[in-house]
Amino acid sequence: MLPVWITGTRIWRSVFRHDLPETDLDRMSTMVTNFFLHLLPAKVNRNCLRLTYTWALGMVALFLMGLLFVSGFLLMFFYIPSTGWAYQSMKDLQFAVSFGPLLRNMHRWAAHGMVALVFLHMCRVFCTASYRAPREFNWVLGVLLWGVTLFMSFTGYLLPWDQLAFWAITVGTSIASYPPWIGETIRVLMLGGHTVGQGALLRFYVLHVAVLPAVLGLLVVIHFWRIRKDGGLSRATGATPPPDTGRTFTPGPLKTYALMEMVKGTSPMVGAQAPEEEVPTWPNLLFRLVVLFGVVLAVTMFLGVYFNAPLEELANFTHPPNPAKAPWYFLGLQELVSYSALIGGVVVPGLLILGLMSIPYADQEAEGEGLWFTSTRGKRLALWSVLATVPFTALLIFLNARVGVRHVFPNAPQILADILNPATLLLVGIAAFSIVIGRRMASRRMAAIALFSCFVSAYILLMLIGTFFRGPNWAWVWPW
Amino acid sequence: MRTPGLPSEGLDEKRLRLSRRFLLGTGWCGFLIATLGPALANVRYLFPNVVYEGPTRFKVGRPEEYPVGSATFLEEQRLFVLHDPEGFRALSAVCTHLRCTVGQFVPPDAQWKESHARCPCHGSIFAKDGRVLQGPAPRPLDFYRVSLAPDGRLLVETVAIVGRDYALKV
Fold it and tell me: What is the pTM of this model?
C-alpha cells in the first residue's frame, strides 16, 4: 500500500475520495461508483465465471480489439496513406523503426485473432441458445459486429499497398459491383473512382482508422450495455453449477446488505435464482479478467516476436499474382465466388447474414437455454449435420468440376450457370435439411441447430479448400 | 385579443384551430427534413467529379508492328491487340468476373482446341473472340474501338465498347 503522506494529501483525496475497499460490501459499492468499474455489475452469477460455459471468447475478442486500437494508433504515426509512400512506410516499419516490426506483427495477429474469436464467440452463443428473449437484439448486434470486424480486416489489408492488397481489393470491390442496379455505384463510392488507386487507398484508410473503429466501438458498447440490461449472461435455469470461487460472502460491519442499482426494469438481479448463486464481481470476475488480459497480451506478443506479418512485393497493377489469394478468413468466400460472383459474393452472404439475424425470432422455445446444444438429441444432431455437410459439399464441388453447367452446355445462359452452382445448391441443401429436421423433430431449436452446424462446417470446409486445395489459376491441387 | 374560454366573435373556431399533435408533427417533419437534407448532400459529396486515373484514349503504336495472326498483350494498358485478315481489334484483358488481368493466350492443347487465355484469380478461360470457355466469368471479354490516329498510329478508346464483328481495316 502507498504511504499515508501520499494518500493523505488533498490532491490524492480529490482524485480518489476513498481508500481501497476492504469488505465485499465496500467492493460492491465501489463497482457502482467507480467510472471504469461501473461497466460491470456489482455481483455476477457463478455461471458466468465458468470457463467451460463462455470460454471467455467475447472478452478475448474485446481485449484483442483493445490491443488493435492501441497498436493501430501507434502504427498511424509512421504510416502514410499515399500510393507513393504506403509501401515505403511499411518497409520503414519493418526495418527502420524501433519496435516497428513487433507492433505491426501484433496488429496483424491480433486482427486475425479477433476475426477468429468473434466467430467462435458467435458459435458459443448459438450453441448455448443465449440468443433467446430478451437477448434477441443483442444477437443481432453481435452478427453486425462480426460483419464490421470482417470489414475492418478488409479495409486494413489494402493499406500496405502490396500485391495482396491491390488484387484483393480489386476483387473485393468488384464483388460489390454485382448487386443489380446499384452495384456499379457502390463500387465507385468505395473506390472514389474506377480503379484501385490513390482515391481508394485514402478512402480505405479513413474507413479503417476513423469510421469503422467508431462504428465498432459504438456497437461494442451497446453490445455490453445490453448484456447488463438483459439480465447478465445467459444461464440454465434449475441446476446450479457448483460453487467454484472458494470464497464466502462477508458483510460489511454494522451494515445490512442493501445494494440497489439505479436501473429500472430488467437488471442483473431480475431472473437470478437466489442471492447465494451470485458472488461479488470484485474480486471474482475482476481478477479473472486481469489474468485473461495478461494471457491475451502475452500470446499476441509471443506471436508478434516469433512470426512476421507477411508483406508481398509492391503493388503491380499490370500483373496479378497467381493464384491471387485473400487472407484465410475470406478464402471460403473466394471459393464460392469462383463458381459465381453474383451468387457466391452477394446472394449467399446476404442471405446468410439475414438468416443468422433471424434465428432468435424463429426459435422462441424455452427449453435448453444455457446448455450446450440444448440436449443430448441436439448434440447428436449437430454431429450428424457436420458429418453430412462435409461429403455433401465435397460432392458438389467434384460434380461442378466434372459436369458443371459450362462443361455440359458451353453456351448456356449465365443465369443457368448462376443458379446451378455449388453455392446455390449448398444453400438450398442446407435450408431443406434444416426444414426437414424442424418438421420431423417438431422443434425450431433443432432446425436452428441443423442450420447452424451445417453453415459452420461448410464455411470452415470451404475455407480449408480455398487455403490448401487451390493453386495457380484457382485449379484444384493436392496440398501434399 | 380574446379571453380564454370565451368563443371569439365572427370566427369559425373549428376550422382555425390547429391540434397540438398536428403542430408537433409538422415541427418534427421540418426538423427531419432540415437535418436529413444536408446529410444526403454528403452522399453526393462522396462521388468525385474529377478523378486522376489513366487515360481512356491512348495510342498503341503503328499497324506494321503487329503481324497478321498475332495477339499482342499490352501489359500497361491491360489489353490484347489482335491482328487477323479481317483487321485490327483491341480485346480487353480485364476479366469480366472480378477484374483481374487475364494471362497471355496459349496455343491449343489437349483440353481446349483453340487458343485460350486463363485468368489467374478464379480460373476463367477465354477464347480469342472473347468467349468464355470455362469458369465463373459471366460474359465475354469486351472489345474496344480501334481507329487510326492522324499520325498513322492505332488509337484505342477503352470507354467505347464495340461488338465482336468490329474490326479496323488498314
Answer: 0.89
